[in-house]
Design a protein that fits this description.
With 124 residues, the chain is mainly β. The chain has no helices and eleven strands. It has strands spanning 3-7, 10-13, 17-25, 33-39, 46-51, 57-59, 67-72, 77-83, 91-98, 113-114, 118-123. The strands form two sheets. Strands 2, 4, 5, 6, 9, 10 and 11 form a seven-stranded mixed beta sheet that branches. It is globular, with a radius of gyration of 13 Å. It starts with a strand and ends with a strand. 34% of the residues are buried.
Amino acid sequence: QVQLVESGGGSVQSGGSLRLSCAASTYTYSSLCMGWFRQAPGKEREGVASIDSDGSTIYADSVKGRFTISRDNAKNTLYLLMNSPKPEDTAMYYCAATERVVVASIREELYNYWGRGTQVTVSS
């Protein structure tokens, strides 16, 4: 069983920056494929970014060039650095993990472990 706990959410102004963290409680963290997802009010959850065990990454087009996903295997922690966020980035952000794939993916049906989320609100 993998437990994931997100932190770092809050309010930020457009053009600022915010870093989200996700602490994973598992001995197998380094082998997991990890992802960030988000859900805005009234919208379906969508993939934001993913990083696999080799450090390869993939991003949604909407955040490419602004967000950076990274991982620290020594600390069992996943990060999402949000640079120049926009009001449309306002959402609940979720951390997710999976052993089902070895290549980074933002397809949420592939993920079997989820955190409870952290709220990000971007004001203009």
